[in-house]
Amino acid sequence: MDIRKRHQVGRLESTKGPANAHIEPVDSEKEAWHRNADRLAKFALANLLNREDAYGRYLSLYLRSEKQKAKTTREKVSHEILQDHFCATDRGDLIGLHTTSRNNTCRWLVIDIDHHGESDPNAESRNERAALDFAQKLEKFGANPLVIKSNGRGGFHIWVLFEGPQDSSKVSNLGNEVVAHWEELEIEKPEVYPKQPRLDEGKLGNWLRLPGLHHTYEFYSQVWDGETWIKGQDAIDRFCNLRPFSFKLNENNSSLVQVLHTTVKGIQKKSRNQVVYGVDYWLNRLQSHRCHKFLRPYRIQTLAKLLSKLNSVSESNEGWSALCPAHNDRNPSFSLTVKENGYFLVKCFCNCTFKQIVNAVEMTISEMFDTAPSVRSAILPPRKRPRLEPQITESVPAFEERQAILSSSATDSRVYSLANSLEVSPSSLRALGIGWCVIDSCWTFPEYNGRQQICGILRRFKTGEKRTMKGSHRGLTLPQGWQEGEGKLYICEGQSDVAAAMSHNIRAIGRPGLKSGFRDLAVLLKDEPGEIIMVADNSKKESGRTEATQKDEPSEINMAADNDDEESGRIGATQLAKQLSNALKKPIRVGAPPKQFKDLRDYLTENPQ
Question: Which residue of 172, 176, 245, 411 is 20 to 30 Å from 603, comparing CA positions?
């Protein structure tokens, strides 16, 4: 009988849906994950959290680069953050949890099987068989594994939940024992989470993405029920009903006891002796690697030679990791990255020098980095000269639709409430595009780049605190119809000053901060015919020069009188005006309200005439 039919993952009681539940469209799966977000968040908080002070977060697709797709965030893991992951509408909502606590304990084990490179049905089929084989082996140890299809392209996660925190070295030993025969299954080397048996004090270790929406593809996690892959509500029920595995209840399992008490040193020694490959092996492997597209044949030969000198090599996001050849390494601390310009970047995280690494692999700098006149020029790319011309802030198309939704949620009562608090007219706030965020219970304002495209959304809470939405870039405050007016144009700081100016029929726009916004202002105002005045605040926000005199500024800048005791407000505005004046080739005046008023809004409130 086929192993997939014999295998009953987790031995759980599943609530079967209707007959067509296993062929739900993606929209139906999305609704199921959104509907169960609160339930899944509670399950994760109760069973999956190893540490509460940090987690991993993926970047939104439009913010990613070749170097960075995700980051580690040092912030408390809350129910809201977990709920956002499971009902994610943007890839920036997706998170992962760390594998190991401060006390070197783990609450779960995950084996990650992946397929890199172009789509290959044969490789995907081998990975599926391997995932079920690993799950069957875990069952023999008494565990209750759950096999999850993670990306629909040959990626699989095998989850084991423990009954309370377990020693991380025992968990790591168990995972490594299960995948020890991976070469026989003709798959890429699986990753075991936790990757490290023990963490040094202060280290966070690795983190793993939670089930749900994939971080790149339009795919929701599917679960193997012993006969087929289930989706949506059925998959969520199976995940939330995962039974924990107890080491204590399986003390009579001799094979398990032997694995748990194997020393870390013994495992490393075993893998060090096993995972060593020659040049021919690596030449064959590199044929399907992404570097084959941009490296010349002789550079691939050199790369294969270098890889053949390393032990316990495993593929990572940018290249490979391995045991460092320059010192007696037990945990892989060596990183090798291949750049598109042909550079091979090597790094030992135990502080071995570049020269020590080169000598250890019996190679020279010219071999590793082609024709290199010096070590520095071989490792580092040429310095890029900074661009002098203005570059506008990147726009965020997704915020256009979100702004329309937020604006429609801003009822008259909510607008009047903020208008009364700021002592401005409701119509001025409407002109600024005021919105209301139901989830965060706060007002919102769109911000624009120099081409008047939305680049971010600023949230204003009832306490007065201001925060940008995830994925936002700071930009300009542009009221509707600001270009249609005539006369002087005042550049204020923030939305409230702009609203106050508009309430008194003053033509104004807003900049995001004391000295920020130059690039967008330079593009926006290049054809502005009227006089431009930079308005400074009297609140201390940034450190700067202790004084600014008329003769210190270029002739095209007119300094207005300012009685500010805290010079930083005027200095910041003056520096920005100087930059903008040089870019627009026209004079920019700088002014500020009298000393006793914090900003323009305070001044206009007390002096409406």
Answer: 411
Residues 265 and 353 in one domain: no
Give residues with Cβ within 8 angstroms of 163, minimum separation 6.
Answer: 244, 245, 246, 248, 249
- Same domain for 365 and 433, yes or no, is no
**368 & 416 share domain:** no
- The residue written with tokens 């492997």 in the block is 285
* E runs forming strands in 176-318: 191-193, 207-209, 222-224, 229-230, 311-315
- Kindly report the backbone phi and psi dihedral angles of residue 404, in degrees, each rounded to the nearest multiple of 5, phi listed first: -65, -40
Of the listed ranges 98-102, 339-343, 436-440, the one predicted with least confidence: 339-343
Q: Which residues of 53-84 are buried (b: 16+ CB within 10 A; e: fewer)?
A: ebbbbbbeeebbeeeeebeeeeeebeeebbbb
Is residue 573 predicted with pLDDT exceeding 90? Answer: no
Q: Which tokens sit at 160?
A: 């084991």
In the 8-state DSSP scheme, what is residue 90?
Answer: S
Helix and strand element counts for the chain (H, E)? 21, 23
Task: Tell me which of 18-32, 111-125, 136-150 is least confident.
Answer: 18-32
Q: Please determine, for residue 3, whether its predicted confidence score (pLDDT) is greater than 90.
A: no
Query: pLDDT tens-digit profile of 506-549?
Result: 999 999 887 788 888 999 998 888 899 999 887 644 333 323 33
pLDDT of residue 10: 35
Q: Are residues 374 and 505 in the same domain?
A: no
DSSP state, 222? E
pTM over 0.85: no
DSSP code of residue 141? T
Q: Which residues pair with 589 in a beta bridge?
A: 533, 558
Specify the higher pLDDT residue, 374 or 434: 434
Q: What distance in Å separates the CA atoms of residue 266 and residue 263, rounded to the nearest whole number?
A: 5
**What tokens appear for 355 in the block?**
């020269």
Distance CA 403, CA 454 (A): 9
- In this predicted structure, the answer to whether residue 17 has a pLDDT above a threshold of 80 is no
The pair of structure tokens assigned to 495 is 């939305």
Same domain, yes or no: 456 and 491: yes
pLDDT of 403-439, one tens digit each?
Answer: 899 999 999 999 999 999 999 999 999 999 999 998 8
Q: Which of 477, 574, 494, 483 is nearest to 526 (CA)?
A: 483
| Residue 114, phi-psi category: left (phi > 0), alpha (psi -120 to 50), beta (remainder) | beta
Spatial distance between the Cα atoms of 491 and 482, rounded to a whole number of angstroms: 12
Q: How many domains does the chain have?
A: 3
User: Are 406 and 500 found together in one domain?
Assistant: yes
117, 289 Cβ separation under 8 angstroms? yes
Same structural domain for residues 263 and 344? no
Is residue 55 in some structural domain? no
Which residues does 14 contact at the CB level (< 8 Å), separation at least 6? 225, 230, 234, 237, 238, 241
- Would 148 be classed as within a structural domain? yes
Whole domain around residue 374: which residue ranges?
A: 276-379
Two tokens at 161?
Answer: 């939940």
Reduce the DSSP state of residue 247 to 3 states and report it: coil
Tokens 């399907």 locate to 288
CATH of the domain at 196: 3.30.70
Domain boundary among 347, 379, 411: 379
Q: What is the pLDDT of residue 158?
A: 95
